[in-house]
Amino acid sequence: MEIFIRKSRVYRHLVLAGLWYAIIIYKVASGIPLGPPDALFLLAGMSFSFLFYVEWKRPYVVIKDGVFSQGLFMKSSIKLDEIHEWQNRSGILYLAGAKHKVKVLPSRISQSDMEQIYEVLKGDKSEEEAEFRKDHNL
Q1: C-alpha to C-alpha distance for 62 and 1, rounded to whole angstroms
Q2: What DSSP state is assigned to residue 5?
Q3: pLDDT (tens digit, 9 = 90+) per residue, 4-32?
Q4: Burial of 93 (0-12, 13-18, 19+ CB in 10 A)
Q5: pTM for this predicted structure
Q6: In sequence order, what DSSP letters do the residues of 27-43 get, joined into one string?
């Protein structure tokens, strides 16, 4: 399963890139000489274009072959059967194992995708743990 970043966030990067490029195009079209700040405008436009491309093409969360991987640039991963604790604190989903810890930002993905992640996490628990969670409303 591949989960991408919310499209509204991705389009926000596209709009910001277009804004910085529009400033440069306006200055060139009106004949205003370009200076050092304009290089920063161009760099900002290229940065937002790069973020748009990366978030459009690469998934934020990948659940494949029993491994939960998260991240765009720096990947962190944990095996699903090694997860012994997961909790949602301060708007961040923490998955903890004996050796690894993964942090997912739910604000970056849609609610339906977050529900799919919760279903995968709930489905991999043992029968006793599922019963314990049901009895204690967890």
Answers
A1: 6
A2: P
A3: 888 888 999 999 999 999 999 999 999 98
A4: buried
A5: 0.72
A6: HHHHTPPP-HHHHHHHH
Q: List, edge to edge, every strand of the sheet that includes 61-64.
A: 2-3, 61-64, 67-70, 76-79
* Mean pLDDT within 102-130: 79
Taking each helix axis from N to C terminus, what angle separates 36-57 and 7-30, rounded to the nearest 10 degrees?
Answer: 150
Instruction: Give tens-digit pLDDT for 68-88.
Output: 888 877 788 888 888 888 888
CA-to-CA dists, residue 35 to 8, 16, 41, angstroms: 33, 21, 10
Which two tokens mark 69?
């991987």
What are 45's two structure tokens?
């436009």
- Residue 137 corresponds to which tokens in the numbers above? 């409303």
Residue where the block lists tokens 């436009």: 45
Tell me 124's DSSP state. Answer: T
